[in-house]
Amino acid sequence: MNGLLFITHSTEKYNHIQSVEIALKGGCRQIQLRMKDSPLDEVEQTAYEAKALCDSYGARIYIDDHVEICKRVGATGVHLGKSDMSPSEARAILGDGFIIGSTANTFEDIHHLVTSPCGLPPDYIGLGPFRFTTTKKNLSPILGLAGYRDIISQCQTAGIHLPILAIGGITVEDIPTLMATGVSGIALSSTILQAEDPIEEVRRVIKSLI
């Protein structure tokens, strides 16, 4: 997992499927469908639509939280929050062939995910938040650049080499210095959907990651 991961959310202007289309048209090929507090049947129906769209662009689709829906839809993988099931439990349901990501806020979170005696680590980590963001409830402590440098340094010292995506209130201007900390990629949502031309904003982000 590297480069840009676009995370959907619904705004006054765009629904989840429209936001998927925006990201795909801009050149993003990694999409996470995140529908917090939505009914399961709505999440599943939207997941099928998003999967079909992503397939048409040769893109990967990840489902936030819902492991069973990920399996039924045949998504690329699932992303698990800190209060969701463990990567090992998700792997037991999904079997091989699916990518599993996990959320972390501290080095201790990452170390626990990697060294837990009860099973397998995730395939990648979503580490954040970089700064305050309104798209996430119960926000964990903000990391800033210093936080990323410190955590990635600790991971290197501990021999932990999982891909790490930075997330949380990131703008295009932040990307060069964030990538210099050693993260593998960036996860964005509001920065793109709130732009005057969101498709062009996706292109700007991708260029900044090259």
Q: Describe it for me?
A:
The chain has one domain: TIM Barrel. The chain is built from nine helices and eight strands. It is globular, with a radius of gyration of 16 Å. The chain has helices spanning 16-25, 40-57, 67-73, 87-94, 107-115, 144-157, 175-179, 190-193, 198-209, and strands at residues 3-7, 30-33, 60-64, 77-80, 99-104, 124-127, 164-167, 185-188. The longest helix is centred in the N-terminal third of the chain and has 18 residues, at 40-57. Helix 7 (175-179) links the parallel strand 7 and strand 8 (185-188).
Write the layout of secondary structure elements.
Elements (H helix, E strand, L loop, with lengths): L2 E5 L8 H10 L4 E4 L6 H18 L2 E5 L2 H7 L3 E4 L6 H8 L4 E6 L2 H9 L8 E4 L16 H14 L6 E4 L7 H5 L5 E4 L1 H4 L4 H12 L1
Parallel strand pairs: 1-2, 1-8, 2-3, 3-4, 4-5, 5-6, 6-7, 7-8
Helix pairs in contact: 1-2
Concise synopsis of the structure shown:
Helices cover 41% and strands 17% of the residues.
What's the name of the CATH homologous superfamily?
Aldolase class I
The amount of beta strand, in percent, is 15-25%
Specify the CATH class: Alpha Beta
Going by helix content, strand content and strand pairing, the class is alpha/beta
Largest sheet entry: 8 strands, parallel, barrel
What best-fitting shape do the alpha-carbon axes yield? globular
Pattern of helices and strands: EHEHEHEHEHEHEHEHH
CATH architecture: Alpha-Beta Barrel
- Cα distance, first to last residue? 15 Å
Can you count the helices? 9
Low-confidence stretches: none
Could you tell me the CATH topology label: TIM Barrel
